[in-house]
Protein: DEHA2D06061p protein
Organism: Puccinia sorghi
Amino acid sequence: PHRPFGCLTYSLIPKERRNFKLNPTAERGIMLGYENNFSSYCIFKLEERNVVRVCDIKFDKFTFPGTTEEEEISKIFDAPSCDHQVEKGGPEEIPKAPRDILSQISTDNILSVNRRGNSVIMPLTQQTHPFGRKLLKKRSQKYMITNSG
């Protein structure tokens, strides 16, 4: 399937380049074209501001980051509105949480739940194939947790 030129792309960042598990897994880019009989794509990476050839990529076919219409819309949303402006006469007061917040928490609504319930551990004597045929018992004994109630 052909992808629209200029659409937003997300190219995979390999695990080797991700040092921490919460780091981004993809980089944003703009689709510039195809290479090698459509097996790879030519992408302009927005953060690095360079052109690369990539294979592992996802497309947002409805977002075009290079259009002027999108820039004008973002300017409208970023501009402060006259209706919402507040006169700054005195020092701004920033709300703060009370220091003794722990004393305000009631333990009446906290439930104590045994997550395992009434579980019983019993040896697994035979395994059944999903289609009903019984399989041989494995050499090492296996155990299965079942709920008794």
Observations:
- Helices lie at 68-78.
- The first strand starts at residue 8 and ends at 12.
